[in-house]
Amino acid sequence: MTRLVALCFAALLLFGACGGDGGGNRRVDSGTGEPAPEGIDGVLAYGVTDNTHVEGTIDYDVSPPVGGPHNPVWANCGFYDGEIPNENAVHSLEHGAVWITYTGDADAATLEALQAIAAANAYVLVSRYDGQDSPPLVLTAWNRQLAVDSVDDPRVEEFLATYVGADTAPAGRADRQRGHGRRAARPVLPRTGESDWLRARVPAPDRSTRLPRCRPRPWFPGPGPRRGRSTSPR
Q1: Residue 77 counted as domain residue
Q2: What is the C-alpha separation between 36 and 162, in angstroms, rounded?
Q3: Distance between CA atoms of 151 and 110, rounded to whole angstroms?
């Protein structure tokens, strides 16, 4: 009997050690945003170090979040008509994706340009985010964030070129250490509303310089990416 009680007590301890991240409203402290060392004007750097996989809702202190504990399932990269869960998008950031968010006030030309950016860059995630701290557009990578007034801002291209697959993303760094790929090619950024220009000039993907190919998988019910192929960080 004593042995049975001891075994039960040990099992409870083991469950607490292994299952303590099973859910609940965990609070993330991202720290105070400071100018990022990469030198792009307006980009703030944060100090999130926790990238554990957890279930349940996370209380992120920055909107959109710049990192922290997140859901074990990533968000497929692509363009979304609506909002998506923070916890899935943060998983994509962990793997080197850039998350561009817009508000419901975005006009048709801006949305067209954002769709084109997502179509041209396999590691870009675009979604609506009505509660973001700095409307109308916010670009987020792991521990990096930039707010801009227009998709035509030249810093949009700088941000994508600098942070897609960058060393600031924990799993992006690990992917390269495992030999899965190199830094992504410089992103193609179309000018607002020029879809004909985009169709004529966006080249086929250069697979020799792309990040590892991503495998789509379902992750939550709701509106999915609007392009035919959806890709996700590995």
Answers
A1: yes
A2: 11
A3: 7
Strands 137-141 and 98-102, bridge-based pairing: antiparallel
Nearest to 119 by CA among 176, 195, 65: 195
- 211 occurs within a structural domain: no
Query: Cα-flanking dihedrals φ and ψ of residue 193, to 5°?
Result: 80, 0
Domain extent for 85:
25-201
**Nearest-CA neighbor of 120 among 30, 229, 40, 12?**
229
* 184 domain-assigned: yes
SS3 114: helix
Q: What is the number of structural domains in the chain?
A: 1
Q: What is the pLDDT of residues 89-141, one digit of tens each?
A: 999 999 999 999 999 999 999 999 999 999 999 999 999 999 998 889 999 99
